[in-house]
Amino acid sequence: VTVPACSLNTITVRSLTLHEVIEQAQRRGIAFIAPWRDLLEPLGAAEAGRMISEAGLGVSSLLRGGLFTAEDRAGRQAAIEHNLRAIDAAAALDAGCLVLVCGGIVGRDISGSRSMVRDGIEAVLPHAHEAGVRLAVEPLHPMMIADRSVITSLGEANSLAESIGDAGVGVVVDSYNVWWDVALDDEIRRAGRRILCVQLSDWVTPIEGELSSRGMIGDGCIDLAAILEATAEAGYVGPVEVEILSDEWWARPPDLVIETVLERFESCVR
Amino acid sequence: VTVPACSLNTITVRSLTLHEVIEQAQRRGIAFIAPWRDLLEPLGAAEAGRMISEAGLGVSSLLRGGLFTAEDRAGRQAAIEHNLRAIDAAAALDAGCLVLVCGGIVGRDISGSRSMVRDGIEAVLPHAHEAGVRLAVEPLHPMMIADRSVITSLGEANSLAESIGDAGVGVVVDSYNVWWDVALDDEIRRAGRRILCVQLSDWVTPIEGELSSRGMIGDGCIDLAAILEATAEAGYVGPVEVEILSDEWWARPPDLVIETVLERFESCVR
Known about the structure:
Two copies of one chain form a homodimer.
Chain A: E1 6-9, H1 18-28, E2 32-34, H2 37-40, H3 45-54, E3 58-59, E4 62-66, H4 73-93, E5 98-101, H5 110-131, E6 135-138, H6 154-164, E7 169-174, H7 175-178, H8 184-191, E8 195-200, H9 224-233, E9 240-242, H10 247-250, H11 254-269
């Protein structure tokens, strides 16, 4: 079994600047990072891309585009503009993909909200092609449907990507979001080469706020090794991100967080 | 459109005694209740059943059986014994069904945990038949997989019930647990006459603890009327329970809670 490369998703240590993230990655031999866009803002994407590339680091994904759902046409148009700029940023970083967190429910209309997501992706796809950026639809855990994503399962993301039918649109497999699904193995197989990004965090309870209660890898009840085995069998050979949105871990020193991530990564992926 | 009867699930007003619940139901013209077992304990199921029946009330379901998953054989056997007594209690109440909250994950083994659920149901099914009690598998929201149920979607519950292949095993459709699912309409249709119980609460955020953050019907983003229309089209004509597990609503006076439930029920179901 080939051990995948670890990528540090910057939200895991969100108090660090880009400069500090790069310094940590170099010092600890982490070959990839996955930055969130707010981290790039002080420098701009072009300069950030130069820094990352000069440091010899790869960018597994850029977080994030999406949020296509909105009450009115102006809001949806603003989302599209925002995504066009996110695509430019992903191109400047030579990111493996732009992760799409598709947008929460509008009103009480799930199916209408899902249509907005499809329309949004199709609207920005030509620009993604020109920029050479792949779009990765991330199904989020169903507990985030109101806040973040009406795309709630890998099956749904696969169907969306298949029906758009463009090699520039794939999916994300994030352990935290999809592990509960009885169809997970089948859907990972179905996704196959459409898997553009793999992310890890663990499931711990209680949930104290649906957006920031994730567990450190190894602390929860997800069989992470099994998910990685399934994505590898499906053909995914890229880096694996550790992405832990957690009030608890955000309160700890970033040094300790990164040390823990690396130590656990070794034991989780084998 | 026939308006369904409202059933008061007693967890919604969990500070009340059975006597108080009955008094409230009679005074307000609520024809059905759905008691949790701890409410019956001071009296015993037989006496509780007599009281409820003499008050002219129906019992839409008894909460709850299940929790079949356990680390070891002794734990699983204890769960089966517990379910046999729950079946006896459901029979004593002439309950429409016994709701099964199937049990959370054991270790990191989802598929093994799911097998324990199936084995548990099959173990108690003969006794359920003798007692004339139908068992209703409740898929819970995927955020409760660690605490309460490895059965996380209506599709999964349908497959489980179909594969057991016994008219005595059906499913519960609880809006809170299943509303996020892109396959919901299809799975409600598939469930058809297997739907033994319908429950309502609403989705509100943030989630402050995955077990007790439910919203009052009408306060959240679930299209409850659409779900009730789908279950009616699938052939369900029984009472509809309002079941709100909520720290927020538990802190309010039961009188106010019940008034709000009844007022909202009228507007949600039409």
